[in-house]
Amino acid sequence: MNRAQRxxxxxxxxxxxxxxxxxxxxxxxxxxxxxxxxxAIGSVGAMLYLGQCFWAGLLAVAYVSIFLRxxxxxxxxxxxxxxxxxxxxxxxxEQKMAEM
Length: 100
Known about the structure:
This protein has 5 helices and no strands.
C-alpha cells in the first residue's frame, strides 16, 4: 500500500462519524499548504524586490488559484461525503487499516 492510499484510509477512518468541512480538509493537509505559502512568499517577495510587479502579480494569482482549486475540491467532497460514507464497506476499510 502506498502513502496516498494509507492517507486516504486514515482520512476515511477520521471522518467515519463526522461531516466533512472545508476547514478540516485544509487542516488535514496543512503540510503542503505550508510549503505552498513559503514558495508564494519567497517567489512573490523576490519579484517585488527585483521590481517585477507584473510577475509578482502573476505569481500571486497562480498561488491564489491553487488555494481556490483545492477549496472547490473540498466543497465537492463535502457535498458527496454523506453518500460516500453510506456506500463504503467499513469492514473492508477496517481490514485494510489493520494490514497497514
